[in-house]
Amino acid sequence: MIQIQVICGEKKYSLACRGDETILSVLQENGITSVPAPCGGRGRCGKCAVKADGREKTACTTKVSDGMEVIIPEEEHAAVAEYGEGYSFLPDGEQGYFAACDIGTTTVVCHLLDKDGRKLATASEYNRQRESGADIVSRIQAPLSLMHEQITAQITQMLAGLMQKTGKSGQIKRLAISGNTVMCLLLAGISPASVGEAPFTPAEYFGKEFKGTDLGIPLCAQVYILPAVSGYVGGDITADLLCVMPGHESGETLLLDIGTNGEIVLGHTGSFHCCATAAGPAFEGAEITMGMPAQRGAISHVYLDRRRLRTEVIGNTEAAGICGSGLLDALSVFLDMGIVDRSGMIADAGRVSVAYRKYLGDYKGQACIWLGSVCVTQEDIRKLQLAKAAVAAGIRILMKERGTAVSQIKRVLLAGGFGTFLNPKSAADIGLIPQKLCDVSDAVGNAAGHGAVSAAISRKAREAAAQYAGQMKYVELALHPDFSDAYMEFLQLDRC
Fold it and tell me: Could you list the residue range(s) of the whole structural domain that residue 63 is in?
């Protein structure tokens, strides 16, 4: 056995380990979760950077050595969509404190509530499970006990912190949870293995209460998990509908909750079709060369001003990377500039206007386009194309299954962190959504979290969630005869 020293902010650890282990595996074994590994520790993304004996190294590819000092960069606050906009159910009038939590694959948002559903305090953090990979498949393949312990400990600590912050004490009466099906299965300690193979059927659909002690969250007397529809359309979607459907019962609504797992709903109260797309982590900045979540330092918007590329950076600071909405804007602008064609290829300098050639370059042997100190590579564009094609094909299939024309869609609602920052025009320019839907598109923020708040304090909300789940017809895209053709068509960056 050897010893290494780990420094993370003000915390210092002396860890015993074997000499054949990587830094990442040692950190994981000791419960240190602040180093992300979006690629699952396969050495592809470079996002697990640490300083080892004074040099920057990737934690997943660097072996430990006796006496090594590892410094972990301090983690930024997860700048996610903490709040949603929409309908709030009236409280039942129960006494006590309540809580709501939206478990995303990338981020976790918790609210502490009074008996009337007012938010006393809110916290958001990166999902600690991300050390095992950025996508759902990685979580399915990770050890169940580890995934369960990480998320229950994280929620417990977040809620305890909110209680301390507000000077409250005692037990929370009810915690309502929204999240995709795999996240909820891991929370409940139920194996998600069946979701990872056809016919992708989960072992539990939820829509009921559990004792907090049974789930490993003793701070909460009861934990209500919103009902799932399928293995990949979960309680985050039924929570979304609690937020956005009351008062809009008629008329076709298209809801896009796009994150690592892209979930799509089309319909009206009483009849919905839904599907899930393997969008991958590109929309959240993961596995992108200089990608990052929507946090301080991320390029969130890109635009052309008098033939010059301009950017907006979250926090009005120096750009450290680019998030999903910035990538969409960038690709839309690159198409307008003629430096990327509709097949997604970066153009040769000789075919580009002289004024734009200065943006073309090379990064580690790849063609790229520079936005100041941040670049978008050819591979980044390909990954965005794959994610975009999956979502656009999902929309096409749902419209066909319902017999719905674009002109019949009255609202397009963009939920989640990515949807909050997304520019509908950019989305339409690259063919993510039909061009005619730009004017009826609205961002609703963390609608799932807002719906979970209603579910925490209202029996009618919980009943409505069950009704919405029962009204949805799930379409399995992987088995749909038209999906492959639609997917290939939407790889092109054409307006539709």
Answer: 2-72
